[in-house]
Amino acid sequence: MMSFYFIDDDKNITNILKLIVNTRGLGVCCGSAENAAEALADLPVMRPDIVLVDFLMPEMDGISFIKQAKKILPDAAYIMLSQVASKDMIASAYEAGVEFFIQKPINSVEVESIIRKVSDGLSMKRMVQQMHNIFTPDTNKSSVSKSANEQQIEANLRTILTRLGIIGDTGSKDIITIVKYMCMHPESVDTMTVSELCSKFCDNPKSMEQRIRRTAFNGLVNLAHLGLDDYSNEIFVDYSSTLYNFEQVRKEMDCIRQKTVRHGNLKIRHFLTSLAFRCQNAQ
Protein backbone atom coordinates (compact mmCIF):
# COMPACT_ATOMS: atom_id res chain seq x y z
CA MET A 1 0.00 0.00 0.00
CA MET A 2 1.34 3.41 -1.00
CA SER A 3 1.98 6.13 1.60
CA PHE A 4 1.32 9.81 0.81
CA TYR A 5 2.66 13.16 1.99
CA PHE A 6 0.96 16.48 1.14
CA ILE A 7 2.42 20.00 0.93
CA ASP A 8 0.14 22.99 0.43
CA ASP A 9 -0.24 26.25 2.33
CA ASP A 10 -4.00 25.89 1.96
CA LYS A 11 -5.20 23.43 4.62
CA ASN A 12 -8.47 22.93 2.77
CA ILE A 13 -6.60 21.47 -0.20
CA THR A 14 -4.61 19.15 2.05
CA ASN A 15 -7.76 17.96 3.80
CA ILE A 16 -9.51 17.28 0.50
CA LEU A 17 -6.55 15.25 -0.77
CA LYS A 18 -6.41 13.23 2.44
CA LEU A 19 -10.13 12.52 2.17
CA ILE A 20 -9.79 11.32 -1.43
CA VAL A 21 -6.87 9.02 -0.60
CA ASN A 22 -8.60 7.55 2.45
CA THR A 23 -12.11 7.12 1.07
CA ARG A 24 -11.00 5.71 -2.31
CA GLY A 25 -8.62 3.18 -0.80
CA LEU A 26 -5.59 4.65 -2.57
CA GLY A 27 -3.20 4.26 0.36
CA VAL A 28 -2.33 5.83 3.70
CA CYS A 29 -1.58 9.46 4.57
CA CYS A 30 1.67 9.62 6.53
CA GLY A 31 1.98 13.38 6.92
CA SER A 32 1.52 16.91 5.59
CA ALA A 33 3.07 20.36 5.74
CA GLU A 34 2.18 23.95 4.91
CA ASN A 35 5.62 24.87 3.56
CA ALA A 36 8.61 23.30 1.85
CA ALA A 37 11.04 23.68 4.76
CA GLU A 38 8.81 21.72 7.11
CA ALA A 39 8.29 19.04 4.48
CA LEU A 40 12.02 18.63 3.82
CA ALA A 41 12.52 17.99 7.52
CA ASP A 42 9.74 15.38 7.54
CA LEU A 43 10.70 13.39 4.44
CA PRO A 44 13.67 11.44 5.90
CA VAL A 45 11.46 10.33 8.77
CA MET A 46 8.14 9.76 7.02
CA ARG A 47 9.67 8.32 3.82
CA PRO A 48 6.44 8.53 1.75
CA ASP A 49 6.05 6.72 -1.54
CA ILE A 50 4.21 9.59 -3.22
CA VAL A 51 4.48 13.32 -2.50
CA LEU A 52 1.86 15.83 -3.67
CA VAL A 53 3.19 19.38 -3.64
CA ASP A 54 1.73 22.76 -4.57
CA PHE A 55 3.62 24.71 -7.22
CA LEU A 56 3.07 28.15 -5.71
CA MET A 57 4.29 28.25 -2.10
CA PRO A 58 5.91 31.01 -0.03
CA GLU A 59 9.73 31.03 0.28
CA MET A 60 10.27 27.97 -1.95
CA ASP A 61 8.24 26.97 -5.01
CA GLY A 62 7.27 23.40 -5.80
CA ILE A 63 9.95 22.84 -8.46
CA SER A 64 12.75 23.98 -6.13
CA PHE A 65 11.31 21.77 -3.42
CA ILE A 66 11.26 18.69 -5.66
CA LYS A 67 14.88 19.21 -6.68
CA GLN A 68 15.89 19.13 -3.01
CA ALA A 69 13.43 16.40 -2.05
CA LYS A 70 14.76 14.03 -4.71
CA LYS A 71 18.18 14.20 -3.04
CA ILE A 72 16.50 12.87 0.12
CA LEU A 73 14.00 10.48 -1.47
CA PRO A 74 15.14 9.82 -5.04
CA ASP A 75 12.83 6.82 -5.44
CA ALA A 76 9.64 8.60 -4.37
CA ALA A 77 7.11 9.82 -6.95
CA TYR A 78 6.15 13.50 -7.07
CA ILE A 79 2.83 14.97 -8.21
CA MET A 80 2.45 18.73 -8.60
CA LEU A 81 -0.68 20.77 -7.87
CA SER A 82 -0.96 23.91 -9.94
CA GLN A 83 -3.30 26.55 -11.32
CA VAL A 84 -0.57 27.57 -13.75
CA ALA A 85 -0.60 26.07 -17.25
CA SER A 86 2.64 27.58 -18.61
CA LYS A 87 4.39 25.19 -21.00
CA ASP A 88 7.81 26.34 -19.77
CA MET A 89 6.81 25.72 -16.16
CA ILE A 90 5.49 22.28 -17.00
CA ALA A 91 8.71 21.45 -18.85
CA SER A 92 10.80 22.59 -15.87
CA ALA A 93 8.68 20.54 -13.51
CA TYR A 94 9.04 17.36 -15.56
CA GLU A 95 12.79 17.91 -15.74
CA ALA A 96 12.84 18.26 -11.95
CA GLY A 97 11.14 14.89 -11.58
CA VAL A 98 7.37 15.47 -11.54
CA GLU A 99 5.35 12.43 -12.63
CA PHE A 100 1.97 14.15 -13.18
CA PHE A 101 0.12 17.42 -12.75
CA ILE A 102 -3.19 17.96 -10.97
CA GLN A 103 -4.89 21.16 -12.03
CA LYS A 104 -6.64 23.32 -9.45
CA PRO A 105 -9.47 23.52 -8.60
CA ILE A 106 -9.21 19.88 -7.56
CA ASN A 107 -11.47 17.29 -9.16
CA SER A 108 -11.73 14.07 -7.12
CA VAL A 109 -12.12 11.84 -10.19
CA GLU A 110 -8.99 13.32 -11.79
CA VAL A 111 -7.04 13.03 -8.53
CA GLU A 112 -7.94 9.36 -8.13
CA SER A 113 -7.08 8.58 -11.76
CA ILE A 114 -3.68 10.31 -11.59
CA ILE A 115 -2.76 8.77 -8.23
CA ARG A 116 -3.58 5.30 -9.52
CA LYS A 117 -1.41 5.87 -12.61
CA VAL A 118 1.48 7.16 -10.53
CA SER A 119 1.14 4.27 -8.08
CA ASP A 120 1.21 1.76 -10.94
CA GLY A 121 4.21 3.46 -12.50
CA LEU A 122 6.09 3.54 -9.20
CA SER A 123 5.40 -0.13 -8.64
CA MET A 124 6.71 -0.91 -12.10
CA LYS A 125 9.91 1.07 -11.59
CA ARG A 126 10.62 -0.72 -8.35
CA MET A 127 10.02 -4.08 -9.92
CA VAL A 128 12.27 -3.30 -12.87
CA GLN A 129 15.07 -2.32 -10.48
CA GLN A 130 14.82 -5.72 -8.86
CA MET A 131 14.95 -7.97 -11.88
CA HIS A 132 14.79 -11.25 -10.04
CA ASN A 133 11.44 -10.23 -8.50
CA ILE A 134 9.78 -8.97 -11.67
CA PHE A 135 8.08 -12.21 -12.62
CA THR A 136 6.75 -14.89 -10.31
CA PRO A 137 6.43 -18.16 -12.22
CA ASP A 138 3.41 -20.30 -11.49
CA THR A 139 4.33 -23.94 -12.04
CA ASN A 140 0.76 -25.07 -11.39
CA LYS A 141 -0.73 -23.43 -14.46
CA SER A 142 -2.22 -25.80 -16.97
CA SER A 143 -1.23 -25.65 -20.64
CA VAL A 144 -4.65 -24.14 -21.40
CA SER A 145 -4.23 -21.30 -18.91
CA LYS A 146 -0.69 -20.69 -20.18
CA SER A 147 -2.02 -20.37 -23.71
CA ALA A 148 -4.71 -17.93 -22.58
CA ASN A 149 -2.12 -15.96 -20.63
CA GLU A 150 0.16 -15.79 -23.66
CA GLN A 151 -2.69 -14.50 -25.81
CA GLN A 152 -3.49 -11.82 -23.24
CA ILE A 153 0.16 -10.82 -23.04
CA GLU A 154 0.31 -10.40 -26.83
CA ALA A 155 -2.91 -8.38 -26.82
CA ASN A 156 -1.54 -6.08 -24.11
CA LEU A 157 1.74 -5.75 -25.98
CA ARG A 158 0.06 -4.88 -29.27
CA THR A 159 -1.92 -2.17 -27.50
CA ILE A 160 1.25 -0.59 -26.14
CA LEU A 161 3.08 -0.77 -29.46
CA THR A 162 0.06 0.78 -31.17
CA ARG A 163 0.05 3.64 -28.66
CA LEU A 164 3.75 4.18 -29.36
CA GLY A 165 3.00 4.25 -33.09
CA ILE A 166 5.37 1.38 -33.94
CA ILE A 167 3.04 -1.61 -34.39
CA GLY A 168 3.57 -1.43 -38.16
CA ASP A 169 7.38 -1.34 -37.96
CA THR A 170 9.31 -4.43 -39.05
CA GLY A 171 10.90 -4.85 -35.64
CA SER A 172 7.54 -4.93 -33.86
CA LYS A 173 7.18 -8.64 -34.67
CA ASP A 174 10.60 -9.27 -33.14
CA ILE A 175 9.64 -7.29 -30.04
CA ILE A 176 6.46 -9.31 -29.65
CA THR A 177 8.41 -12.57 -29.99
CA ILE A 178 11.04 -11.59 -27.41
CA VAL A 179 8.68 -10.04 -24.87
CA LYS A 180 6.30 -13.01 -24.99
CA TYR A 181 9.23 -15.32 -24.32
CA MET A 182 10.37 -13.13 -21.40
CA CYS A 183 6.90 -13.26 -19.90
CA MET A 184 6.44 -17.00 -20.34
CA HIS A 185 9.97 -18.00 -19.19
CA PRO A 186 10.76 -15.53 -16.39
CA GLU A 187 13.00 -17.95 -14.52
CA SER A 188 15.51 -18.14 -17.37
CA VAL A 189 15.77 -14.59 -18.75
CA ASP A 190 17.02 -12.48 -15.84
CA THR A 191 20.68 -12.71 -16.79
CA MET A 192 20.30 -13.08 -20.56
CA THR A 193 21.47 -10.34 -22.90
CA VAL A 194 19.33 -9.11 -25.77
CA SER A 195 21.64 -10.90 -28.19
CA GLU A 196 21.21 -14.17 -26.29
CA LEU A 197 17.44 -13.74 -26.35
CA CYS A 198 17.48 -13.09 -30.09
CA SER A 199 19.67 -16.13 -30.72
CA LYS A 200 16.81 -18.34 -29.54
CA PHE A 201 14.69 -17.31 -32.51
CA CYS A 202 17.01 -16.74 -35.46
CA ASP A 203 20.42 -17.56 -36.87
CA ASN A 204 21.33 -13.90 -37.14
CA PRO A 205 20.66 -12.42 -33.69
CA LYS A 206 22.54 -9.22 -34.50
CA SER A 207 20.14 -8.43 -37.33
CA MET A 208 17.13 -9.12 -35.11
CA GLU A 209 18.54 -6.93 -32.34
CA GLN A 210 19.10 -4.10 -34.82
CA ARG A 211 15.48 -4.31 -36.00
CA ILE A 212 14.30 -4.16 -32.39
CA ARG A 213 16.57 -1.19 -31.67
CA ARG A 214 15.34 0.76 -34.71
CA THR A 215 11.72 0.13 -33.84
CA ALA A 216 12.18 1.01 -30.17
CA PHE A 217 13.99 4.19 -31.18
CA ASN A 218 11.10 5.12 -33.48
CA GLY A 219 8.86 4.85 -30.42
CA LEU A 220 11.15 7.26 -28.56
CA VAL A 221 10.96 9.72 -31.48
CA ASN A 222 7.17 9.46 -31.56
CA LEU A 223 7.01 10.18 -27.83
CA ALA A 224 9.27 13.19 -28.28
CA HIS A 225 6.90 14.61 -30.91
CA LEU A 226 3.95 14.04 -28.56
CA GLY A 227 5.80 15.90 -25.82
CA LEU A 228 6.50 18.83 -28.10
CA ASP A 229 2.80 19.10 -28.92
CA ASP A 230 1.52 18.56 -25.38
CA TYR A 231 3.55 17.83 -22.23
CA SER A 232 0.42 16.51 -20.54
CA ASN A 233 -0.37 13.98 -23.28
CA GLU A 234 -1.35 10.74 -21.54
CA ILE A 235 0.85 8.50 -23.71
CA PHE A 236 3.85 10.81 -23.33
CA VAL A 237 3.51 10.94 -19.55
CA ASP A 238 2.84 7.22 -19.24
CA TYR A 239 5.79 5.92 -21.27
CA SER A 240 8.50 8.61 -21.37
CA SER A 241 9.78 7.77 -17.88
CA THR A 242 8.93 4.07 -17.74
CA LEU A 243 9.61 2.35 -21.05
CA TYR A 244 12.20 5.02 -21.80
CA ASN A 245 14.39 7.42 -19.84
CA PHE A 246 12.78 10.86 -19.62
CA GLU A 247 16.08 12.70 -19.99
CA GLN A 248 16.75 10.86 -23.25
CA VAL A 249 13.25 11.68 -24.52
CA ARG A 250 13.95 15.32 -23.67
CA LYS A 251 17.23 15.12 -25.57
CA GLU A 252 15.36 13.82 -28.62
CA MET A 253 12.88 16.68 -28.28
CA ASP A 254 15.80 19.15 -28.32
CA CYS A 255 17.17 17.39 -31.40
CA ILE A 256 13.82 17.71 -33.18
CA ARG A 257 13.78 21.42 -32.30
CA GLN A 258 17.34 21.61 -33.70
CA LYS A 259 18.76 22.76 -30.38
CA THR A 260 21.29 19.95 -30.63
CA VAL A 261 22.45 17.40 -33.20
CA ARG A 262 22.59 14.58 -30.65
CA HIS A 263 19.64 12.20 -30.52
CA GLY A 264 18.28 10.61 -27.39
CA ASN A 265 19.56 7.14 -26.46
CA LEU A 266 17.72 4.08 -25.26
CA LYS A 267 18.59 0.91 -23.38
CA ILE A 268 17.03 -1.99 -25.25
CA ARG A 269 17.13 -4.42 -22.30
CA HIS A 270 15.33 -1.92 -20.07
CA PHE A 271 12.78 -1.25 -22.82
CA LEU A 272 12.01 -4.96 -23.29
CA THR A 273 11.92 -5.67 -19.56
CA SER A 274 9.56 -2.76 -18.94
CA LEU A 275 7.32 -3.92 -21.78
CA ALA A 276 7.22 -7.42 -20.30
CA PHE A 277 6.25 -6.09 -16.91
CA ARG A 278 3.51 -3.89 -18.38
CA CYS A 279 2.09 -6.79 -20.39
CA GLN A 280 2.11 -9.15 -17.40
CA ASN A 281 0.49 -6.65 -15.07
CA ALA A 282 -1.92 -4.78 -17.33
CA GLN A 283 -5.37 -4.31 -15.84
TrEMBL record:
Keywords: Phosphoprotein. It comes from the Bacteria. InterPro entries: CheY-like_superfamily, Sig_transdc_resp-reg_receiver, ST_Response_Regulator, YcbB. PANTHER family: TRANSCRIPTIONAL REGULATORY PROTEIN GLNL (PTHR43228:SF8), TWO-COMPONENT RESPONSE REGULATOR (PTHR43228). May play the central regulatory role in sporulation. It may be an element of the effector pathway responsible for the activation of sporulation genes in response to nutritional stress. Spo0A may act in concert with spo0H (a sigma factor) to control the expression of some genes that are critical to the sporulation process. Residues 3-119 form the Response regulatory domain. The modification 4-aspartylphosphate is found at D54. It comes from Dorea hominis. PROSITE patterns: RESPONSE_REGULATORY. This is Stage 0 sporulation protein A homolog.
